[in-house]
Amino acid sequence: MESFLSLKVSLILLLLVLVRCVVVHGDAIDDVQPLSKIAIHRALFAFHVNASLRAEPVLLGTKGEDFQWITVELECPDPSEDDWVAVFSPAKFNSSTCPPGDDPKQQAPHICSAPIKFKFANDSNGEYTKTGKASLKFRLINQRADFSIALFSGGLSNPKLLAVSNTVTFANPKAPLYPRLSQGKAWNEMAVTWTSGYNIIDAVPFVEWGFKGESQTQSPAGTLTFHRNAMCGPPARTIGWRDPGYIHTSFLKDLWPNSLYTYKLGHRLFNGSYIWSKSYYFKSSPYPGQDSLQRVVIFGDMGKAERDGSNEYTNLQPGSLNTTDQLIKDLDNIDILFHIGDITYANGYISQWDQFTSQVEPIASTIPYMIASGNHERDVPGTGSFFETNGSGGECGVLAETMFYVPAENRAKFWYSTDYGMFHFCIADSEHDWREGSNQYKFIEKCLASADRQKQPWLIFAAHRVLGYSSDYWKDGSFGESMGRESLQKLWQKYKVDIAFYGHVHNYERTCPIYQNRCVNTEKSHYSGTVNGTINIVVGAGGYQLNSHTPLQTIWSIYKVSDFGFGKLTAFNHSSLLFEYKRSSDGEIYDSFTISRDYRDVLACVHDGCEPTTLAT
């Protein structure tokens, strides 16, 4: 019997080691940004008189488009299977010297910045190594500067510059683009953030908006930017740096609930002329507590991908476009969205934030696109992030805090609360200390305590890292961030949090309603009555390369799937909530459950969740 128990313990320990390997393997995958494989600082001149590139058309966006396809025709007299073609922006990508802090360059060309995208020359023509000819298509977005295309030999690790194309540019490189909506600090306020090439010395930014079909009003916008010295390390401070342009935010206030508004972005030049974006629309939020159909999408770890297939030689973000396209397809049935960390996986390559905001523009311009901070937005050693890793590639939160608005008191501390109708959301920042006694812990308790459960019965907690339970996240002897769970689950129980959402682990998993490692309900798909535990859900399969599930089956894990998807909450009224996990490829439902209860069930006394009472009359 003792030998059997010893064997059983050994097997469990082995499985736990396997779990840890899965997580470590997943973290290692995360740190590979396709552009980081290019040793651009080692590039050498090797111009060949008979090598050539021609890009057409040369003028883009003549009808106001913010993206356009170009065709690159190339010829190389000595072709090789490791030849590759890169898109640079600005078009003049070499200089006499590199800025301080870059790797020292002893000879020309001084290429101090990475390209924004690349393909191998044989991508579209398997005969390239025989003919030396290829025709490649790239999808370019307006990024405030011109473009040129370069041909390199020597592969990504020993690049030799063979030829450079003509210049390609957009008709108005400075145009206002890629609006991102967000809930303001009040329920009846919408923040509109966008990017342009216009500084405040060039033009005055504003938003023109109003009820659809009625007279419009104008609201001013503030303007932010940042410079290379705001980055905390490489590659963001070195080869990954690219001028981010100017980020504008306007606050549309005193909105009527449930109303359709139109808006467009404007810049008034000092010569009296105006630059306009195209027109957009949004529906304003319901009044807090309003009894109506309300639909929320939540996921993490999506990243960006290129519709032209560039940068994807490692296929790191295969689900990103599927998730984006499925959300666009279902946009009429979504009211607000939460992307809970690991937004772009730019990892210090600043150009990729423009690529991401372009990708999600059809969504973010129409519904509030709320974000949370993840390790790939914030973490840099020695900068105050809770985890001493360089997951952000030197960005240290600056890009996420500037490119997107969230209603936080201090956007460098990325925790905030927001209301949407019958929902109250408490969004934590897993990259800063959440332990008991910390400032964030105090915020979380205040946020949870402030929910009026009679008006807003659905109380939701979300963070990037697994601060609760995941059978695929083994760390420090616990399934999840042990310090987080031990500190926070007391609050979830005290304030009766319905669901806690996480990303970071690239798959989907749902637990039972759980407290202190125990299921408090035997139901699997329909929960009713008192709130005596919190359902933990990992929704980290938004698009980045998936993590496999561990073979270990915990008693509290109800459903697992390793496929790209997103969560969707539908509140039908104050007593009925539906959750679905939907597959990104086709929108089919993998998993679902319902919660049904009355207000008295929220008030009911449960273990570690009772209001104090007295026998006095």
Automatic annotation (TrEMBL):
- GO molecular function ontology, one term from the record: metal ion binding
Concerning PANTHER family, the annotation shows:
PURPLE ACID PHOSPHATASE, PURPLE ACID PHOSPHATASE-RELATED
Belongs to which family? Belongs to the metallophosphoesterase superfamily. Purple acid phosphatase family.
Residue ranges of the Purple acid phosphatase Fn3-like domain? 54-172
| Positions of the Purple acid phosphatase C-terminal domain | 533-592
Which stretch is the leader sequence?
Answer: 1-26
Q: Which UniProt keywords apply?
A: Glycoprotein, Hydrolase, Secreted, Signal, Zinc
What InterPro entries does the record point to?
Calcineurin-like_PHP (IPR004843), Fn3_PAP (IPR040974), Metallo-depent_PP-like (IPR029052), MPP_PAP (IPR041792), PAPs_C (IPR025733), PAPs_N (IPR015914), Purple_acid_Pase-like_N (IPR008963)
Q: Name what cofactor the protein needs.
A: Fe cation; Zn(2+)
Q: Which domain of life is it from?
A: Eukaryota
Name the SUPFAM superfamilies on file: Metallo-dependent phosphatases, Purple acid phosphatase, N-terminal domain
State where it is primarily located.
secreted
List each copy of the Purple acid phosphatase N-terminal domain by range.
Answer: 179-283
Its assembly, as annotated, is: Homodimer.
Localization of this protein: Secreted
Reactions the enzyme catalyzes: a phosphate monoester + H2O = an alcohol + phosphate
Enumerate the spans annotated as Calcineurin-like phosphoesterase domain. 295-508
Q: What class of enzyme is it?
A: hydrolase
What EC number is given for this enzyme? 3.1.3.2
Protein name in the entry: Purple acid phosphatase
Q: Which GO terms describe its cellular component?
A: extracellular region
